[in-house]
Amino acid sequence: MEDCCDFIQWLGADLSIKILMCLDNPTDLVRAGAVSSSWRQFVIMNGLSKQLCIRMFPEVANIANVIELNDEIEPLQNRYETPTGRLCFERENRVFAFLARGLTSFMRKDCMLEAVVASSTDNYPQEGIHNTLEPGDRVDQRACYWSSQGAVDPTVPETLAYKLTSNLCVITEIHIHPFQAYFQFGFPIYSAKAVRFRLGHLKPAYEFETEIKDKPLSALRFISENVVWTYTSPSFPMAQESRLQKFKLPEPALCIGGYLQIELLGRVQKQEMDAKYYICVCHVRAVGRPLSPAFDVDITDPSGKCTLKHYPDAEYCCSPTKSEGESSGSPSRFRSFTASIRGWEQMIRNTLLGGGAVVGHDDDSDEDDIVGMV
Questions:
Q1: Residues 6 or more apart in contact with residue 77 via CB below 8 angstroms
Q2: Which residues contact 247 (CB under 8 A, 6 or more apart)?
Q3: Is 131 helix (H, G, I), strand (E, B) or coil?
């Protein structure tokens, strides 16, 4: 009986790539690379892990190079025919395999790190943007909110800029709570008519300077001149209601660079005492998944080209904190999550480093269910 034919050799490279790129789960792609040494080399040489990441998030195409902590191989040496080049290809495939796992393993958490600047503030700093990081509308028995300056024209927009917890974040929702002035007659709610969101990065070689943080005009000018917005959401209508309103993006968005801008479009509430329109917000959240501390990026080009940095010895991308709706008495979910991550790491290292395959069950399996195969 004739031996079975390797379909990669039989179909050729182009068609084989199309077939393997039909795999949606990064685990399946790693397992495909564990079938044989020739399949492993095929996955590595054709950069299939990176192609999978790009298919999930096109922004990944801006990653020009990858490096690892204590990695002595120069990322620009990528000739596959040389030993150094082969190691570069293996390293790149390994890093993108970890990144693919990080992009698809999801636990919801607030990704907001700090407030940067608002386009205007009525009474600074008492009504500054920093108040929007507080979960409620009162702190120490005082009102806690951001307020725009008043405008006669209700179409005048406002913007709020924030720094996210990581230079690599997958954002799925933005939550905004308009402020209700409980100390004014009629308890007016100063919401916007609509909202829109932008994600982006600083231009290369620029850093947000601490000394301008408390200078709104300088900070606003810095953001305007030095942040490149790479993603813009559609606009969402906002209800004139005092509640946390959740705006879900059409698709999860990968923010490379860690900056978020909220555009508040139009005004609906006029203040009785001066007959001007205001927008007031008491709380903002950016919900998603930060990929730090295992990953970071350095922007190398104004167009957004960047170097992806991977820290293999860092803690897992998502720390075991409670997600929304998670009760404190159910730790098994987090134990299963960290177990599956450990199994995934073992699978990638064994498979992509040539040490054999490790096959795991579903993502919610326990660590003991992950078994090694010679």
A1: 84, 85, 88
A2: 173, 174, 175, 176, 195, 197, 233, 236
A3: helix
What is the Cβ-side half-sphere exposure of residue 255, based on CA atoms within 13 angstroms?
37
Over its C-alpha atoms, the chain yields an Rg (Å, rounded) of 24
User: For the chain, what percentages of helix, strand and coil (3-state, to nearest 5) are there?
Assistant: 30, 30, 40
Looking at residues 230-246, what average pLDDT do you find? 98
CATH of domain 109-290: 2.60.120.260
- Whether residue 195 contacts residue 246, with contact meaning beta carbons closer than 8 Å, is answered with no
* CA atoms of 300 and 311, how far apart (whole Å): 19
Is residue 73 over pLDDT 60? no
Across-strand partners of 114? 163
Hey, what amino acid is at 42? Answer: F
pLDDT tens digits, one per residue of 165-176:
999 999 999 999
**pLDDT one-digit tens code per residue, 123-167:** 999 999 999 999 999 999 899 999 999 999 999 999 999 999 999
- pTM surpassing 0.85? no
Residue 312 pLDDT? 87
Q: How far apart are CA 69 and CA 346, in angstroms?
A: 18
Kind of pairing, strands 236-237 and 306-310? unpaired
Q: What percent of the chain has pLDDT over 70?
A: 72
With a CB cutoff of 8 Å and minimum separation 6, the contacts of 188 are 180, 181, 269, 271, 272
CA-to-CA distance for 222 and 202, rounded, in angstroms?
A: 10
Residue 124 φ then ψ, to 5°: -95, 135
Q: Is the pLDDT of residue 112 over 80?
A: yes
Exposed/middle/buried for 277, CB within 10 Å: 0-12, 13-18, 19+?
Answer: buried
Which residue in 133, 174, 129 sits closest to 280, CA to CA? Answer: 129
Residues β-bridged to residue 256: 168
Q: Which of 349, 350, 372, 368 has its CA nearest to residue 359? A: 372
The answer on pLDDT for 14 being more than 50 is yes
Please state the domain extents for the chain: 19-105+320-333, 109-290
- How many residues would you count in the chain? 374
